Amino acid sequence: MERGRLLAVWLLCWSCGVCVVTAIQRADLLPYGPLSGDFILAEGDDETSRVLSLPKPLYFYDSQFTQLYVATNGIISAQDLPMEKQYVDDGLPTDFPVVAPFLADIDTSGGRGQIYYRVTETPSVLNRVAQEVHRGFPDARFAPTHAVVATWENVAAYEEPARAAGASNKVNTFQAVIGYDETDSYALFLYPEGGLNFFGTRPKESYNVEIELPARVGFSRGEVTYLIFTRTEGPHYSVTTDEQSVKHLYQVGNTGTPGMWLFHTGNRYSFDNIVPAAVGGLLATPSPRGRGFSLDATTPEYAEFEEYPDNTLYPDGQDEEEEEEDDDYPLTSEDPVFQPAPGGGAAEHPDSLPATPSPAPPAPVGEGLPSMTSEPGLRPQQAERQYAPAHPPEGGAPEQQQQQQPQLPLEVVDLYPPPRRPGPAALSPDSHVVAVDEEDVDLDTRVIQYTTENKETCARFQQQCSQNALCSDYATGFCCHCQPGFYGNGRHCLPDGAPQRVSGKVSGTVMVGTTPVELGNIDLHAYIVVGDGRAYTAISEVPEPVGWALMPVAPIGELFGWLFALELPNSQAGFKITGAQFSRHAEVVFYPGNQRLSIVQTGRGLDDHNHLTVDTALSGSVPFLPPGAEVAMDPFKETYQYYPSVATSTSVREFTVRSAEHGSESFSFQLKQNITYRDCRHDSRSAGPETLQVNVERAFVMYVKEERILRYAITNKISPLGVEPQLVNPCYSGSHDCDTTAQCVPLEGQAFRCQCATGYRGDGRNCYDVDECAEGLAPCGAHAQCVNLPGSHRCQCQSGYELGFDGRTCVDVDECSSSPCHVNARCLNGLGSFQCQCQYGFAGDGFSCSQQAGQTSRPKSQCEQHRDSVQSGANQGVGAFVPQCDTDGRYRPLQCHSSTGHCWCVDSRGQERPGTRAPPGSAPRDCDRPEQPERPKSQCEQHRDSVQTTSPEGYPILGAYVPQCDPSGEYTSQQCHGSSGHCWCVDSRGQERAGTRTPPGAPAVDCDRPEQPEHPKSQCEQHRDSVQTTSPEGYPILGAYVPQCYPSGEYAPQQCHGSTGHCWCVDANGQERAGTRTAPGTPPLDCSVSERPKTECEHHRDSVQTTSPEGHPTLGAYVPQCDPSGEYTPLQCHGSSGHCWCVDSRGQERAGTRTAPGAPPTDCDKPVEPERPKSQCEQHRDSVQTTSPEGYPNIGAYVPQCDPSGQYTSRQCHGSTGHCWCVDNRGQERAGTRTAPGTPAVDCDRPVEPERPQTQCEQHRDSVQTTSPEGYPILGAYVPQCDPSGEYTSQQCHGSSGHCWCVDSRGQERAGTRRPPGAPAVDCDRPVPAPPTQQPESVCERWRSSLMEHYGGKPEPQQYLPQCEPDGQFSPVQCYGETTYCWCVDQDGREVPGTRSHDIVKPACLPSVAPPTVRPLPRPDVTPPLRSDVSLLYAQGQKIAALPLNGTKLNTAQARTLLTLHGSIVVGIAFDCQENRVYWTDLSARTISRASLAPGAEPETLISTNLVSPEGLAVDVKRRLMFWVDSNPDVIESSNLDGSGRRTLFDTELVNPRAIIVVSSTGTLYWTDWNREAPKIESSTVDGQNRRVIVSDGIGLPNALTYDHSMGQVCWADAGTKRLECVSPDGSGRRLIHAALNYPFSMVYYRSHFYYSDWRRDGVIVVSKESSQFTDEYLPEQRSHLYGIAIAASRCL
């Protein structure tokens, strides 16, 4: 024992006079604490952390570990720890793996310190670890990928209870950091100055003996397996031995800095024991005996140490005699005196030490020394202690190395047990022999490099990416990246800017107080407005006790806020990191009750509608909240820490509970959460942020008892940590007026633009879904149908087909694989279906077979044996080919592979007939046609057929080049690669002709033109052609860069890599120009070198003038003319046609200026006369007449004919086909008026006889029976049969083929009813039960389907298609395609007169059908607002709500529902301050009602007859009258407040009356009429006298109206002009208050502020009259349009 103690003390006292270095301070520790994402270990005397899962395994010694534990007692372990009494008072080694920065009996009870820990990928931490390792081990090739940081801050030693009165206040602070990569691990121990104040602890069972055990610092591998069944102590390493060495921990170090210790702790391939760092020597203090040591300032590297038979710290009881037996350096009872060897060599020893040859002087660090790295080496391990390096020193033999005299390490520990047979080739028992094949290893500079034959690449795994993503290959694998216009993690991509929906289930058991409540898979739905960060979450069917109690648990909905938060600059929302598959684990601890609730939310992916699916599991307990309580949550900020594959956050929230029983109470809870996901680490450039901050500006929670719905509404923004911009762009504040399906793009300052989301069209403020299916923008493959989704689409396989292995192609379902037929029947699989046929000797339908009398079964044929062996599983494999046999057991002539979709013909033996294979989607060969005697195969055919041969398993060989042969077997002159899209010309031998290759999309070379004598190949052409050579097997060389050359042979200035997508500029030699490389998806640089950039005109002109690849000019093209400055000349002429016209500065033709050849051209310099706006006909006509971008006219297009006033002429004719027809005033063809060329035309001016519209069947039938343009009938077409009422007859038959089948009401074939000619038909009148989820088509949906079919599935942008709501009802607003020509309709789709709009703002149409009713219905009684002198009342669909005012500020926390009216659409609203009643109009019920604002008051219907579309409502408090407008009959009426005395005031000169107010003090009525042709604001007396127009100029869509009593002015808000204006009753004094409203609907005025309901924001917006600025807003928790708004005061104002 004495020997070991002297050894350690000598090391710690070594360098007393060597150097003076400042010790590390607390600020030098790596960042720690909650803000750094640390977990906090529970307080206590013997606590162990929960398992800390490592993202990648860590190597400790030579063993792999995937999890760690942090313990109170100053250690980190790789396995769960035993009770402390089993190890805390013992020295090293331990029987479990330990990293011990300060192993002692530590106690953090009573708040005496904290212990923090985390695993991190934070770059700043990893960089710090890498720097320290490279300083301590200069030759180490170490780049840490992860680091484990554990910090003990101000922790105290355990004190016995009896000593509590005199407890010490000494506390320690220290830190341990373990950095690791794929092969190595290093540990860093940090002891700041003043951080160690106690150096040991008393054992708990000291029996009153004054003893203190010094802390243990070091490492232990733990027990290891020996001789298979035996376990023994593994290697260990100690840094300290006694209290004095512990005291020196912060005074010395082995890194050149006092208090910092570094050790190499593990290696994947070979590792014997811990290795200390060597930088600047050990910093030491003088020896206690006054003996100093003068040693070199540099500690020699550990490879120089000799092997010691035994150098452990001797255990007690070991006698001197054992020590005397040591061969090397036995220590005597006297202290040896060490002296430096000459030249810094080894120390000389007293005579008692055996003589040892003096070694050569050691080389400086880094020169001639063994490598400090722990890279894998193929070498035998040494027999005993292995401090030999991975590779011997260069230039020196191992024998020379072993002769060196070692300097002593801190401690050298044996590997246990010692080997039985020492020798250079012996292996330690726990060593591993790694067998490596030479072919798998490249020995280069002593580094083993493994090949990546199994690397995942895009070619093999691209189907894992989203259909809206690009796949990119990297050195170690592939990554998916969303395409422009989409966002996500590449595996899941959503369209930018579109709102997102979430659905899922909530389950679990929650304890409310002492009552357990089971949540049995109840529904969760969320809706997120991505454009402004609002997230609405609703959980239905929540039992009442837990519904109230879960109100504070807003973190359930906060997940969706984080996923789709509004992004500020330099930040990204969670979905871009996680995609749609993730796992969130959150723990909520409530205070003061310490209830704990666990939340586990799992992202399951995107469903068929592109909606996110998230399941939620709750377990634990929550505080009890009294029924009727309200919960208010203050805004908060939360910091998220990001690591590879995980994001974490910890926060504390406060909330207030208000209830009748307890008043207002404040509570809090702590939230800890981890969100784990799958990231892609192959792209090193995609590193995300380390920390981001989520700012929750508003959190609203509510439980609706009657509906049993729990709601959360939060507004979220995400930004870099600490970002607080002073002047926020509306895109970042969410105050923009972009459509909810649009993306707000910030510009300079406060400017922005609205851009419709991917999958939508419009101007950004009004966006419409693009039907990709109808427009043919998303063609699905064979056997698939396109299903349109909002903003997207999906391809759905037809019945009998399923998605293939690539996730995109529909392949046949092999129904026979599930053995659906009778045991005595054969299953015959076909394309999209199957048949069951009874075997020979049996009769039945195949599903039930019985043996026929006297029949015996015949033996199985070769085909049947082949088929049954596959189906039985003997040769079954995924995607295996199952042969098809006929009823006689023979191979069917046509065989098809159900997985790949390929079909081919076979002979009687089942062998494939050459040349008959057809790929998926193409028509199969006629295998019954007799084979012609065939000629010998040509070279081309042999080449082609060798490539087309499928693999033994039946799979086609993908990506191979298949040559194309003509009917005579020769190579076709042009060859194309089906996968890459490149085309080229070949000679008769199939050899590529130089210079003819063209990339995908480029015009192909004319391969039939005789070859011109060619110029010698340029450098670029030689480079290109050498790369493009295919392999001998016909496969292209993938991933190679192919340079692009001009026809003249020079390098194109811009070069792009076809595989990676990178582009760059090159010089004339093809050398890349520095700084010009751009990544995929970013706009490439302009590589042109002209002095000034080309103008648009010059670009246009030069692109047209470019000659063809063969050098011929392009004839007939229009070449624009540019002036010297590059601008378009005002007059442009077509050189070929002779037409001339005027253009604007952008080169666009000015309407009406085109002149024919020979006619005098228009004077283009004459100012343009103001002209009326183009009519729909003129817009249609001019859009068709526009020439193509190349200058060619559109041949064969139909050009509508317009009269001088711009209207469609009643008769239209097609200039190319000669057909003529009649149209209505909208240009729509009148049915039955089309005439063929040469036949007399119909009189289009004759009034149209009323006729019923054609049904879908009649339109279908008539469209098929139409003859071709030449007058020939269409042969072989199926003509549907309709009954007299126009409906499809239940049985349909094909006149040509003779097949018959049953159809439903939409003409769709009913599965399984088709019968061949001659077979008995199915009874089609037997009812077919409809699937429970199928609902009949509405009138709107049937009309839409009919018109879609009429347009041939591809309507033009200006053609009309009805817009239907999700429930099938007509949308209130209808538009012509993508135009701004819109109007309002009623519930039956009939146009509301006077609502047609031609400008960019849609008309303000109101729905007339209430949304579906939610069950159970709440009682329709009043819940009055909390006490407030003044409140705003607003109508929102089926409810009236109250929003109290605090002065003029909105008291959003007190907002609540006043009255719920299911099945209603409340529009107009007014308040009677005398009787405290609210009045409203109901558009759905067509009634006017009122209710008192007393608790429990019920609605009273006042008027329920002769109302069609009641909207605006006003109450005259003084005269006790009410006034309203009805916008369908266009009347203004009045009555007494009880509904009596009803009279009509006005029923003329009204088109679309909307808002109405009454000024009681003057007895004046004011109302708005948003007539789209002539909008106006009028007034009259309350008795209908003195009617006059106040405003008619400069207004567009005056929705809202109010009265400013302070100024005596009428004020209105206009949804068309976006302006808020006021004017005096006489029309004078007009003034502008605000010029940029969103979409106002209703408005009130109160104390110099205007409060209006906004349809764009779906909230209440406040505008100050004095400052003309927005001052406040309120966005209700449930997003839908707000209608009427009124002021309710406790006394009349």
Q: Summary?
A:
The chain is mostly beta strands. It has 17 helices and 88 strands. The N and C termini lie far apart (96 Å).
What key attributes describe this structure?
single chain; 1693 residues; mainly beta; eight-stranded antiparallel β-sheet; 88 strands; 29% strand; disordered N terminus
Word description of this protein:
The protein is mainly β and 1693 residues long. The chain is built from 17 helices and 88 strands. Strands 25, 26, 27, 28, 29, 30, 31, 32, 33, 34, 35, 36 and 37 form a 13-stranded mixed sheet that branches. The longest helix is centred in the first third of the chain and has 14 residues, at 123-136.
Taking the alpha carbons of the first and last residues, their distance comes to 96 Å
Task: Please state the CA-atom Rg, rounded to the nearest Å.
Answer: 43 Å
- Report on the biggest sheet: 13 strands, mixed
User: Structural class, please?
Assistant: mainly beta
* Quantity of strands, as a count: 88
Strand content: 25-35%
Provide mean pLDDT, rounded: 78
Poorly predicted ranges: 1-19, 281-453, 1330-1334
Helicity level: under 10%
Put simply, the count of helices is 17
Backbone shape: globular
